[in-house]
Amino acid sequence: DADVTQTPRNRITKTGKRIMLECSQTKGHDRMYWYRQDPGLGLRLIYYSFDVKDINKGEISDGYSVSRQAQAKFSLSLESAIPNQTALYFCATSDFTPGQFSETQYFGPGTRLLVL
Amino acid sequence: KNQVEQSPQSLIILEGKNCTLQCNYTVSPFSNLRWYKQDTGRGPVSLTIMTFSENTKSNGRYTATLDADTKQSSLHITASQLSDSASYICVVRPGPLEGGGNKLTFGTGTQLKVEL
After folding, report:
1. Tens digit of pLDDT for each residue in B64-107?
2. Could you read off the pLDDT of B8-67 as tens digits, one per residue?
């Protein structure tokens, strides 16, 4: 979905390097998420943010940090990359409305990260 | 622990044929179940959503069914096309008091390939 963009789309880095993955959205959604996808596993939540000043850990936050610079931007950082962080990373937004329980998540195209 | 299991893991069918993908879940209480389609190199895109009170939902050639008593869902694809080749992911959201978009449980997906 072109409304959610991720940069870079592919990245190769070395163990110990710090890298940042960026996500931008034009949907005007308050809620944003970072997931990783590994072969044979379902998408797993790393961090999420329900508003600009709100940051929450997900299921697998160790080794990661995030920054919500504005409503439209949510960045994921790997402070010191390690090989088992090799994965496909997805950013998502959701159209939450209070009182509704059917919010839809809209995913970006993903960033393929290889840590050597 | 909440789980979502999908079967088969992979499937190959001929163009024009029908197929059915299965999803079993243990999430309880349960709010809604969504099927996503993920094309290679892209992020997941929502196909259908069903609440606990719905039995079936269609989106073109895609028809999802839900049996909340047995905690099973299926996605039926009619008259398959080459463009249906993708991973299909079942995602379950817990009950309204159990959290929002940060509490989704993702299945590992069924990889479908449609051949000529």
Report:
1. 999 989 999 999 999 999 999 999 999 998 876 666 677 899 99
2. 999 999 999 999 999 999 988 888 899 999 999 899 999 999 988 899 999 999 999 999
For residues B32 and B51, is the Cβ–Cβ distance under 8 A?
A: yes
Among B31, B43, B106, select the one facing A108 at the smallest CB separation.
B43
User: Is B108 within 8 Å of chain A by CB?
Assistant: yes
Q: Does B27 touch chain A (CB under 8 A)?
A: no
Q: Greatest CA span in chain B, whole angstroms?
A: 47
What is the spatial distance between Cα A81 and Cα B115, in angstroms, rounded to a whole number?
Answer: 39
The percent helix, strand, coil of chain B (3-state, each to 5) is 10, 55, 35
Closest-CA residue in chain B for A91? B43
B73 and chain A: CB distance < 8 Å anywhere? no
Phi, psi (deg, nearest 5) at residue A85: -95, 5
Q: Are A33 and A93 in contact (CB under 8 A)?
A: yes
SS3 at position A83: helix
CB B81 within 8 A of CB B22: no
Are the C-beta atoms of residues B57 and B10 closer than 8 Å to each other? Answer: no
* A40/B51 touch (CB, cutoff 8 Å), yes or no: no
B94 touches chain A (CB under 8 A): no
Nearest residue, CB atoms, A110 vs list B43, B49, B104: B43
C-beta of residue A101 within 8 angstroms of C-beta of residue B32:
yes
